[in-house]
# Entry
Amino acid sequence: MNTTASLLPKEKTAAKIIKLDQQTIVFLIFIIIFIAFSIFLPGFLNTGNLVNILRSISVLGMLGLGMAVVVIGRGIDLSMVAILAVPTALTMTLASTGVDLGLALIAGVALAIAFGLLNGLLTAYAEVPALLTTLATGLGLAGIGQSGILQFDVVPWPDQLNPIEWIGGTTLFGIPSSVISFAVVAIAVSVFLKRTKLGLFIYAIGDNPNAARTTGMPVRPVMVLQYLIAALIAVFAGLVMASSSAVMDTRIYNLSLIYNVVLVVVLGGVGLSGGRGGVWNVIVGTLLVGTILNGMTILNFSYDAQNLVKGVILLMAIAIDSVLNPRNEETAQQGDI
Amino acid sequence: MTPILELRQATKTYAGVPAIEGVDFDLMPGEVHALVGENGAGKSTLTKVMAGVVTLNSGQMLIDGQPVDFRTPLEALAAGIAMVFQETSLVPTMTVAQNLFLGQEKFINRLRAIYIAAQQFLQSLNFNVDPTLTVAALGAAQKQMVEIARAVLHKARIIVFDEPTATLTPEEKQHFFHLIKDLKERGVSVIFISHALEEALEISDRITVLRDGKKVVTDITANFDRNRIVKSMVGHQLSQELYGRNTQARPPGKRVLSVQNLRMGTMVRNNSFSIFAGQITGVFGLVGSGRTETFKVVAGVLKRDYLHGGRILFNDKPVRYRIPAPAIAQGIVYVTEDRKVDGFFETMGVSRNIYAGLLAKLRGKRSWVRKREEKAVGEEWTKSLNVKAVSADANVIELSGGNQQKVVIAKSLIQDPELVIFDEPTRGVDVGAVAEIHQIIRQLADEGKAVVVISSYLPEVLSLADRILVSRQGKIVEEFANKDVTERDIMYASIH
# Structure
């Protein structure tokens, strides 16, 4: 039993030297790719496209922030895209049928909270592995959205919601407001993770849930809180997304967006083994992934080819992550991602 | 005669701290060689090197005079070195026969064939174990037999036993000694790690004593007696200071904890005892005697049986904790026996680990992390417990075992407990830090706190405790005052 433990310190220090620089490395790769695209890709380096990149990564980045909170706490939330799509579409549908704006918003947010709670309660109290819980709840929520409560797959942005259009559909000093929303969420998550007691608890639980319990931290409630935060960020990101593109296509769940989110988090250096990383990691990860996606679109890669590239990068990122942040076998549980 | 196995100037360091340093060791064919030394003396590391679990930083290992370099345990096994661990490495859900042939199965694995083969093999060894039983159904001694059988089956020429007798009853122990003699007659060399010096003196041909990762002496057993071993183990001054007998017993203060008829599964059976303020209560018992489980229930780490679980009175009020948090809030802390599993947070620094303890205690009173407070707390506690770290931000995982333990202790003491439960407080701790940790524990009792020290190391209990409880088979069976008890009394109570 002590074998792995006594071997750990050496590997850990080696990993740490590299890990200290991981976000810097990713940032440098981003710079290199950005410069390469600027030189070799016509139509990459112009204001229109850059704004386009920023707008597209802001939603991805927000989802990444929510995911990061969960991953730091040693979980994963695959239902984020469903929570982004369906509660938002619900709010939009309700608003378009004349329901009061506030009520429509409350309904959407309540649906998101319900699923966040469901994720949290199932993982924390029923001890179902997070991977399976959130896969199932996401699937279920997407199903409810597509077959039950919504009339159309594609819900247009109703005029009734225009009072909150400023969260994503406008610009401020030429900056798309979705980017500003991303920045606000990033600052909020950063403050939460680094400055609050609950944020510290999330790191502690991700690092070593047994030690967190013995130390007297409320492990299970904090785990529920993680999923709740992820769900709230997801529904906010959904509203930003809908307001900036004036439509919410709930079929987005069937696309590979969730893998992009995982890619952002892992590539940025938030270790899947928990307890590591922060908002900066998500930001550099988002910049890199967003740029690559945009470049591939300009290069006219087919959707399938893009998936292939993303799959390969994701696989490499996860492999490198498990080398750099090896799982602590003494605290690992069955079903951990 | 060439030694079957030889180590020359073997050195292994973990994160810069040497676990063994320049050790020379040799093992003759058909020899029983005992390795003795304190916790952290380097016995386990030495045997792990032989078994290919860890590789040397410098030095050489020779088998039959040929230099070897094992990268994996498999290579060592192929060379005929097998290790029998304290925690058995058998698969509990498989049968004895399946375990014996684990990893050697033919492509088509016929159960009947391996049962027959196992039966014949076990009989040839004179082991009375049914090969069709699942390992989970076996007792500790039988599990050990299976492990030994497996080692012999793998044609092991060298078998390393790590604390083989810790969980055995006296009868089983005698049987085990017979087994060792049998192995010896078959020409198998045996390395034997033990805390029990009498055993080493009884069955070994030669004894090697390690201290602080260095070899002190190797000599034939006839030239040793208990005193000489102890002297070489601890060095002169340390033996007095470290495990000197506690002569001035503190009188009991008010009764802090009263446990009545506590039950938990098969581990704790109808356990009743009390703990008093202002003194150290030592709890001695063999591994598996339910001592750890009992106190984990008290601290809320484990749950007692729902029905007929018994009563726990803390300060005369009945309590029932499902998680440790409320126990900590009311003043009971449990300092774990295995700090890597549930002790510290390895990605965090020293200060943050300790501060995490404070924040967990201050439930509902603090919402924000105060960096300045964290820094102050870190500095205060690293100073008062003498934690040696590069800086207060150094990662705990990079510290030595003793300093890690001090951080875990600080994390609990900052929670301002009334009752502190130390479970094996000096396990895997370097000798220098043992004295310091003992000092911390004594000071807590002097300050009037109720202190419990669970230990399977008798000298530690005798040196710290004012009052000694002996646990056996899930309950406290005997209580002694330290001043009028002998080691033999305690040992006797713990196994009979």
